[in-house]
């Protein structure tokens, strides 16, 4: 029986996910459109994101084991997530991926999954 290699393994596992989360949140905390959506202490959010991305890309089930099923849309309903904010979130993630050197088909796959997730979170229209 052939072993399956996960995206998590392909990119280098925990260290790469941690670097991605760090690079991403360094952008988010400086972003005027995104920063207001997050608490003053962003550490718990960073930790949840690390666990979620680890699980999403085939690593250990850190998120579900601690928090249960992700149910991300329901968890984001209290926050006004607009199409513009989803795009801004994705721009921060793309920049973070560039910073840590994620390239090629694995990066494309990861970004595609994150695009689906980001736009699934949209729950408010952009202001006119």
Could you walk me through the main structural features you see in this protein, from its secondary elements to its overall organization?
The protein is mostly helical. It has one domain: Globins (Globin-like), CATH 1.10.490. It has helices spanning 7-11, 14-28, 43-56, 62-67, 72-76, 83-100, 104-120. The longest helix has 18 residues, at 83-100. The protein is globular. The termini are far apart.
Apparent shape? globular
Helix and strand content put the structural class at: mainly alpha
**What is the CATH third-level topology name?**
Globin-like
Q: Assign the CATH architecture.
A: Orthogonal Bundle
How many domains make up the coordinates?
1
Order of secondary-structure elements? HHHHHHH
- The CATH class: Mainly Alpha
Biggest sheet details: none
Number of beta strands = 0
Percent range for helical residues? Answer: 55-70%
Q: Which ranges are low-confidence, i.e. pLDDT below 50, for 5 or more consecutive residues?
A: none
Can you give the mean pLDDT?
94
Radius of gyration (CA) equals 15 Å
The number of helical runs is 7
CATH superfamily: Globins
Please give the alpha-carbon distance between the first and last residues.
56 Å
Q: Tell me the β content.
A: under 5%
InterPro entries: GlbO/GLB3-like, Globin-like_sf, Globin/Proto, Hemoglobin_trunc
Keywords: Heme, Iron, Metal-binding, Transport
Pfam family, one: Bac_globin
GO molecular function: heme binding; metal ion binding; oxygen binding; oxygen carrier activity
